[in-house]
Amino acid sequence: MAQEKKYKLGDLEFDTEQEYREAAADLKRIKGLTEKYQIDDPAQAQKILTSIQAHPETFRSPYGLKFVAKLEKAAGVSASRAGGGSAGARTESSGSGELSDQGKKKEKQAHKQKIRKEKRETKTKNKSTSGAEKEKFQIFTPRNFAIGVVIIACVVVFSIFAPRLFSLNNSPDSNGDIRKNMITAYAKSQADLKMKLYTYYYNVVGQTEEEAQKDAEEGLSHYVMDLSDRTISTMSDSEISDIYSRLVEGGDIQNNSFVEPSEISALKEKLLAAGLSGNDGNGMEGETAIEAAINSMMDYQNRMYASLYYQYSLLGYAKSEAQGYAMEDMESLFGHVIYDQKMTIEEKQSYFDSFTKSGLIKDNQIVRFSADPAAYSLPELTPAIEVAFFGEKAKAYNCSMLSYAPAASVFYEIHEGKQTGYMCFRNNGGNKDYIQVDADTTVTAQGDFFLTIGSEKQTGKWFYNNQNIGILINGDSSSLISYVHNLTY
């Protein structure tokens, strides 16, 4: 007999996915409350308990019940009092049965309110009686007869139009349909994000299918609920209402508007940097899968070439030189540079086959290069570095990466006081250029090095040297770029 699937969360185990989701949602609510309030403070604990009493469905799991018990303990309130104690309840001193000072005060206030209420009722009654005595012999007047006719006419009109009014109240604009439409949009957005996250982890990062699926699901866990694989159209009104309430309580919906968790925003920025934002893998209407993939590749190459050309221009190179460097990088990356070509369907098929063979197109979608320089053994510099050329005294720079295509070359903007400059490490060594550093050490140059700041301009080769980046300029191997922070590779 097959073993039943269990769901675990921390030290608790659940028989159903619904129980597991409820526990996860409770944990998120608890985290938000502990970050906002000092739950060990009796006053703040009581404030949270009051809110929970107003919304009995706030917590549904053992985690939530434990949290409520902790609040009750901090507030000094017993479980029975927390569940249903009234504001005017008696407080018994140990064995005395007498009212506390607070209870006496509340009782006294209630007595005063009762007296005031009785006076108002007596006054109203006397006024009504006086009016009745004046009018008791004038009931059947022409004025009263006219009022009666109007009332009868209103009843007749209401009986005719009431069905239409109730029909309008049940129109698609009712609260139930609005909530259902919001939850449907919520689930659709999650499904779209889940697909993009899977594509990113599988195609860009290079994870296995299982790893990519796991990380994509973990990304969606930042929402209050994961509805990406739920069919909203088959849910009952009570289920929709329950889900909507939980999203409001958890903070994903506020004032009938979606509030995106900051963690989700960070994931979307990562997808945008990888070129996956808004890309669902489908082409324009009427395009075949091959045409869509090749057109997407052309667009990707065009953006990458434009970025490389601009960054080489920042180093002070003329247009022709910057174009030459950018084109060398593009050919090294893609093999075939096609972004400015006009092709027949047969030519697109040929390039499609070539890119598929080289691994740049997979499952009819292009595989983008990682935005992480370290993925290609390129330096990922810290915000602070020190640079020393030809054994000179080291200079400190602030350093920030601005590259779009670190797979080919990684560019940094550097600052020294009011001076701004640029630095580039090209990944074009090919593991062929061996450099003698000293009598006992030979290293492999990984590519060309460029630096421009103020009137200073340096070019040469670069290589790793333990925790430093070695720079070989005119045969001199004493130039180094050092990390201010102790980093290893």
Which features would summarize this protein structure in a list?
single chain; 489 residues; two-stranded antiparallel sheet; 49% helix; 13 helices; 16 strands; 8-stranded antiparallel beta barrel; alpha+beta
Description:
With 489 residues, the chain is an alpha+beta fold. It has helices spanning 17-36, 42-54, 62-75, 79-84, 101-135, 142-169, 175-204, 209-220, 237-250, 262-273, 289-314, 319-334, 345-357; strands spanning 7-9, 12-14, 253-254, 257-258, 361-362, 365-366, 384-388, 395-401, 409-416, 419-426, 434-436, 442-444, 447-453, 456-465, 468-473, 476-483. The chain starts with 6 loop residues before the first strand and ends in a 6-residue tail after the last strand. Mean pLDDT is 75; it is low at 79-100, 132-137, 164-173 and 278-286.
| Rg estimate, integer Å | 36 Å
Q: Strand order, biggest sheet?
A: 7-8-9-10-13-14-15-16
What is the ordering of alpha helices and beta strands?
EEHHHHHHHHHEEHHHHEEEEEEEEEEEE
Q: How far is it from the N-terminal to the C-terminal residue, by CA?
A: 50 Å
Number of strands: 16
Which spans have pLDDT < 50 for at least 5 consecutive residues? 79-100, 132-137, 164-173, 278-286
Give the overall average pLDDT: 75
Strand content: 15-25%
Number of separate helices: 13
